Amino acid sequence: MEEIEMNELQETVETVAPEEDMAPAETAAPEENGAAGAPAPAKKKMRPQTIGNIVVTVCLSLGSLLMLLPFLWMVLATFKPSTEIYTTFFPRTWTAQSYAEMWEDCNRLMQGGIIRGFLNSFLTTVPVVFVQIIVSAFAAYAFAKLKFFGKNVVFLIMLGTMMIPFSVIMLPQAWLYGRMGLTNGPLAIIIPKFFGSITTVFFLRQFFYGIPDSISEAARLDGAGYTRTFLSVLLPLVMPALATQAILSFIGNWNDFLGPLLFVRDRNWFTLPLLVNRLNGSGGSTSFIPRVLAASLISLVPIIIVFAAFQKKIIGSIVFSAVKG
Predict the structure, then answer these.
(1) 262 near 174, Cβ under 8 Å?
(2) What is the full DSSP assignment across 254-296?
(3) Each residue of 132-144: pLDDT tens digit?
(4) Which residues of 120-135 are buried (b: 16+ CB within 10 A; e: fewer)?
(5) 207: part of which helix (H) or strand (E)?
(6) Kind and range of the H or E run holding 6
(7) Domains in the chain, please, with CATH?
(8) What span, in angstroms and rounded, lies between the C-alpha atoms of 182 and 191?
(9) What is the model's pTM?
């Protein structure tokens, strides 16, 4: 019986073993065949949106270079002799003679030279911008958040003054400031701007309108007055817009030419735009162009510094306008 049982066990092992050995081979074969016959991964196609972004970037880069080309020409022209101003783009002969001539001419035109011109421009720009922005912010807060009789009528009248061009009122203003004795110094171009700017008031008023009234009401419930609510609660919320207007006001006052030309009689109080204009004493001769460009380039340095320092505020103001809209 034991021999019969051992024979049966051997037969079952012989029949099962080949099946077990073949099963992995049969199952593995399709996997190997599948792996060998799998198609290669397809190459990623460039999306139309990506192509559009590349085209826009290239166009904007070319436009930026085109806009910077005159500025680059001006910088290079300050290192050219007067005979090469219109003949070459890059100087054949590099020289700094234009800066030395500019320095001497400025000292001849006014006491203190270009340094005095810088100080005069700072005096007629920095205090004006600071006071003008603060006064305009207070006025914008009043027109946006306070309730008083005739508010809309007064605001419309102020907006109406924007329709009057400066060329209409400049001669009466010059006569009035002369009668008041303000034209002997820079007061004629400083004091009138201390009363604010309607353009800045209109711009900041829109930002104050975008702030919920519940914020100022919560501050009033905590015991804050109108001034404390404005300075501590609302003013920090519109700081990007305030910085943007301050930069624009700085650039406008720094580059102002017509106002000082009409209202400043004493040449010792000439600002940089007037000083640069007086450098061209020959009425357009090319011999004066390098020194005029040198003075113009130096006068642009504060504007470039201010814009580079506060450009994030300008971007923040644009983003805030977009979110509010």
Answers:
(1) yes
(2) HT--HHHHHH---GGG--HHHHHHHH-TTSS-GGGHHHHHHHH
(3) 999 999 999 999 8
(4) bbebbbeebbebbbeb
(5) helix 198-209
(6) helix 2-37
(7) 119-324 (1.10.3720.10)
(8) 9
(9) 0.74
